[in-house]
Structures are given as C-alpha cells and as structure tokens.
C-alpha cells in the first residue's frame, strides 16, 4: 500500500493525490463518504459505500426472502386497515 503526505489547507480542505483519485475512480465534483475508523480517516467513493451497505444488508436477509415483497405486503395490510 502506497502512502503519501499532504497538507490540510484553508477551510479544512484535504488534497487527494491524483494517483489515489484514479485508483478510487474519483472525478472532480464526485461525492465521497468519509468516516473515522480506529483513529484513521477513511475516504471512499459513494458507489463503494453503497456497495458495502448492500453487502451488509444482503448478509442479514435470509436466502430466498424478498425484502421488497415483504414491504409491499406490509403496506397493503396497513392500507386494508384504513
């Protein structure tokens, strides 16, 4: 893993080196997700964050269960009560 030093400039801006942006598939104007993990700043693309969340949710849903179908059924049940 490559390391680089950079400075935080006025306004708290952090410059991400071009090589890192290319590796992450980031373009000027893209939105990134940042979080502090065990004392380190983690920066990733929004797409990478969404992929991780989808993976996590899939691990919580049993095989063969459709969360969408369950939600629709719940909504229909609630609508029928009105």
From TrEMBL:
<protein>
    <submittedName>
        <fullName>AbrB/MazE/SpoVT family DNA-binding domain-containing protein</fullName>
    </submittedName>
</protein>
<keyword id="KW-0238">DNA-binding</keyword>
<feature type="domain" description="SpoVT-AbrB">
    <location>
        <begin position="6"/>
        <end position="51"/>
    </location>
</feature>
<dbReference type="InterPro" id="IPR007159">
    <property type="entry name" value="SpoVT-AbrB_dom"/>
</dbReference>
<dbReference type="InterPro" id="IPR037914">
    <property type="entry name" value="SpoVT-AbrB_sf"/>
</dbReference>
<dbReference type="GO" id="GO:0003677">
    <property type="term" value="F:DNA binding"/>
</dbReference>
<dbReference type="Pfam" id="PF04014">
    <property type="entry name" value="MazE_antitoxin"/>
</dbReference>
